[in-house]
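This part of the workshop introduces the protein records we will be handling. As an example, a complete record with its sequence and its structure tokens follows.
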Amino acid sequence: MHMRGINFVLGLGVALGLLTGCQAASPATKQASSQSSKTSAKSVHSSAKHQARPYQHWHTVKDVHLPILMYHSISSGNQLRVPAKEFQTEMTYLKAHGYRTLTANEAVYALKHRRIPQKKIVWITLDDSYKDNMTAAWPILKQTHQHATINFITGFTYKKNHLTLADAKRMQASGNIDFQSHTVRHLDLNNLTYQVQLTELSSSKKWLDHNLQQNTQVICYPAGRANQQTIKADKQAGYQYALSTAPGIATSTQNPYNLTRQRVVPGMSLTAFQTLLKSFVNFSSKNCYILATFFVFGRIVEEHVVFEWFSSVKQKHQNAFISAFWCFVVSLYLSTYHPHGDRTRNSALRGRRLNQFDQRAQIHLLSYRMISGLSNIIKIFAT
């Protein structure tokens, strides 16, 4: 009995000790749990606040200059197909030089409110929703952490070489791709009646809004063309902005239903690609001396460099007068001095280097024939 009594007392003591320990630990556990809950709640609140105000850190500017790069197929074959290797190089350049690639919604916000997240911004667009946008472009965009907008032809989802709805949903979920409208059948809107235009515009927007759970704000014109009826239909269909194929840097002062874009073509050098991103030429005294060097020491300048510079001047200026003047000056230079003689000039005119540029730029390059009679003016200017 004595031993049993001792065992009973010891067992009771251990039980009381364990009970006391549990009670002592309980407040600490509750406190840790409470702190964890508060931290979690704070994180959720911060995330929700950021989602509610995604543009709170953007700053206001006098005028937004937004390069909108225009691609089509990421493959090889013609002037609308940029090889994947070149696309990779261009996306890598954007990443290395600190460019932020905007989403369609961010681009609309920037242009509408004249607010930007940083100085270097660009909007990448791919027209026609080709299948290789998923198989070739998308992996590169993910690898380089860039974003692009695919202008989707909603009536082409059944075609073999175009994206399906399942493809679009998968790409959208990645966060690297968003989708805007490129109409239903990709018809030249200029050739359609107002009612048919409205149907094309409205139907494609409704399809995208319903299937991708979004508010489609941008229409990209097939063939880049539109008329006044098109713009009226854009507004009635509910679009905020429209993309053309006219070259130039888009700005917040442009007609929102006729935004200019910079065409990226196959074979374009990285130097030429860089010029597509710049909204103006700095007419400092240094650049004026460089320009004078073109005239005085033209023999050391390869013609294709001048061609690339000329193309960039034509595309970069928003001020028509300045653009026309400098294009005129360079045209005069091309008409008066050719360091390699007529043979080189003629071979260039036959397209030795010009196949890298937009057809509009080629027309301007050839136009110097019309003003060759004014060569003496530039000789006087150069001296």
About this structure: The two ends are 126 Å apart (CA to CA).
